[in-house]
Design goal:
Distance between the termini: 23 Å
Order of helices and strands: HHHHHHHHH
Strand content: under 5%
Radius of gyration: 20 Å
Length: 191
Amino acid sequence: FLTVSIPIAKTFGLGTLFGGALFAGIVQFGLGAILKKIRHWFPPIVTGVVVLVIGISLMKVALIYAGGGKWLMDNKPELFASGKQLFLAITVLLVTLGIHQFAKGFLAMASILSGLVVGYLLAIPLGMVNFEAVASASWFAFPTPLKFGIRFNVATLLAMGIMALITTIDSVGDIAGITIGGAGREPTDKE
């Protein structure tokens, strides 16, 4: 959804993005209700290509995050992709892959979460975590529903609806890839 969400937020504001996200959720809910009937529209060649294209399109985002994020790249380019940033990114990647490959059971399945936790804990002594907002926040606060509003725009609804369809195809491909690759069989309708 990033491919469409960022331009929508920049052009129309967060309220319009939230309206589009709400619509996308409704589209995905509807597709989920009829997926058993339309799954034959998504053979492995289609879902595989969608998964591949999404993965390739996210490579740029991953590399920017590994270097410290877009804000750092735009505002402090001298710090972007510094040794500290790359050390943290590589450590998270290695911890995640190591746990996934060598651990068993729940821990292996939670390898991404484990890598994130290790990365966060490592970022604290490296001075990369700022607790000022947490320290100045009140102990209890009520959320402000719809703080940014919710608006609907036809172009946004169309774009987010298409993205909902694409992510549904991606999910079908992910599930098929996991069951075919891991269990040696096609996924069941329940899966």
